[in-house]
Write a structure and sequence with these properties.
heterodimer; A: about 350 residues; alpha/beta; 6-stranded antiparallel beta sheet; 12 helices; about 35% helix; B: about 80 residues; alpha+beta; Translation Initiation Factor IF3; 4-stranded mixed beta sheet; 2 helices; 4 strands; about 30% helix
Chain lengths: ~350, ~80
């Protein structure tokens, strides 16, 4: 890298747009390094890593893969703790589900700015395109991101720069504005054409699907968790567990997390010391975590019968269920599986 | 030269990479790290992270449901 070469930090999500934005800058002789933020809600890899049936699928991290294709360094930053404030108190509200997209973008650009200043870089680039997303990528919200993040005119969006006022890197001639783009709208064709131009044939499918918070079922489980606990708080384990298993809340004070297959059961095994858990000893069936309180014998029986319901049980047979408490105590129950007709639809959280 | 262990068991992608990255940032060139993971995705992610950052994967092995990956920190670690 020459003394005068300018340096940009690129927000790399693993999708096509951020990859193209970085590629455009590399083409202009800019030194680019990538940054990727881990909020805990990233879809990346989790369910593939857990579910046995998905284990044959490639388990690559798309941000790492993109960086490798681009030949740039990638810095992955854990922002799980700091992100809580963004999710719990978004100044600009939520999208269709629990997704605080605009606050999220502002926060990430702000973190990128901190990184940029600490490491002596000159500006930030993103793969944003005007009109691509209904909340964070609109013509009226793009200046909000630049302003509220503090990045101001050091934030350059190479794919739609021609639709926006010139930024510092353009005004100073660090980059040639004429070689930037004026993409807008939800069409993916301009990006696909540009990808073709660069010979990029393989990339992660672009969509809103990189964050669990845009998912309706996931958001419903998150809201249920807060409601049940009486406070809007979470830890990383909470939000990981929302991605795994069948979640059934038969009583306000407890829900069951039921492994759906071997991979999920193995994952839930890692939580045995933190949760009351139960499983059948007489039949094949899932590992079940109890999140909350079993207040009395009725609660315990109901949880055990639900556990038995998801076992492979011939009609008319009872199931032996072992219940394990966090203090190491355990007990055996002999129960009838709860008939499907007695399991209320509203108990199921997804 | 030192050799350190990183425990990334029960962590899912990309946390094992983050744990490794943060530890490597504290190490000297030539130091070695042995990271233990339970997410098989680490078998792709850690070598990819090493390749783009110039570190060397010395080897990997499976012990039960765990994977142990050995990494040597690049010569000009910064």
């Amino acid at each position: 890298m020459s003394q005068s070469q300018r340096k940009a930090v690129a927000l790399i999500s693993g999708g096509l747009d951020s990859m193209l934005a970085a590629r455009v800058m590399l083409d202009q002789g800019i030194h680019v390094e990538g940054i990727n933020f881990y909020t805990g809600f990233c879809v990346e890899g989790h369910t593939h890593a857990i579910r046995k049936k998905d284990q044959a699928k490639p388990k690559r991290n798309n941000a790492l893969w993109s960086a490798e294709q681009l030949g740039i360094k990638l810095h992955i930053i854990d922002i799980v703790e700091e992100y809580k404030e963004v999710l719990l108190n978004p100044q600009h509200g939520y999208g269709a589900n629990m997704n605080p997209c605009l606050d999220c973008k502002i926060f990430m650009v702000q973190k990128a700015l901190e990184w940029m200043e600490k490491h002596g870089f000159d500006f930030i680039i993103t793969g944003e395109v005007i009109g691509q997303r209904p909340m964070s990528q609109r013509k009226d919200t793009m200046p909000v991101v630049a302003r509220e993040s503090g990045a101001l005119d050091r934030l350059l969006r190479p794919l739609c720069a021609k639709n926006l006022p010139p930024t510092l890197p353009e005004r100073e001639g660090w980059v040639d504005r004429e070689k930037l783009f004026g993409f807008s709208g939800r069409s993916r064709k301009p990006q696909m054409d540009l990808a073709k131009h660069y010979g990029i044939e393989e990339y992660a499918q672009p969509s809103g699907g990189c964050c669990f918070l845009t998912d309706e079922a996931y958001s419903r489980k998150l809201v249920d968790l807060w409601h049940a606990r009486g406070e809007r708080k979470y830890e990383l384990d909470d939000i990981m567990l929302l991605k795994v298993g069948r979640h059934i809340r038969p009583r306000p004070q407890f829900k069951l997390i039921i492994g759906r297959e071997e991979g999920e059961n193995n994952f839930l095994e890692g939580y045995r010391k933190q949760f009351v858990h139960m499983y059948a000893t007489s039949h094949n069936g899932p590992l079940v975590l109890v999140d909350g309180r079993l207040d009395n014998e009725d609660d315990l029986q109901l949880a055990a019968r639900l556990t038995a319901r998801y076992c492979r049980v011939p009609p008319g047979e009872q199931v032996a269920i072992e219940v394990n408490y966090v203090d190491g105590a355990h007990r055996q129950l002999q129960v009838d599986p709860l008939p499907e007709t007695e399991q209320k639809l509203e108990w199921t959280l997804q | 030269m030192s050799r350190v262990q990183v425990d990334a068991r029960r962590l899912l992608c990309p946390m094992p990479v983050i744990r490794l990255q943060n530890r490597v940032n504290e190490l000297q060139p030539g130091d070695e790290v042995e990271i233990t993971c339970t997410d098989p995705g680490a078998l792709n992610d850690i070598p990819a992270w090493c390749r783009i950052n110039g570190h060397v994967v010395l080897g990997s092995r499976q012990v039960g449901n765990e994977w142990i990956i050995e990494v040597r920190v690049r010569g000009d670690n910064q």
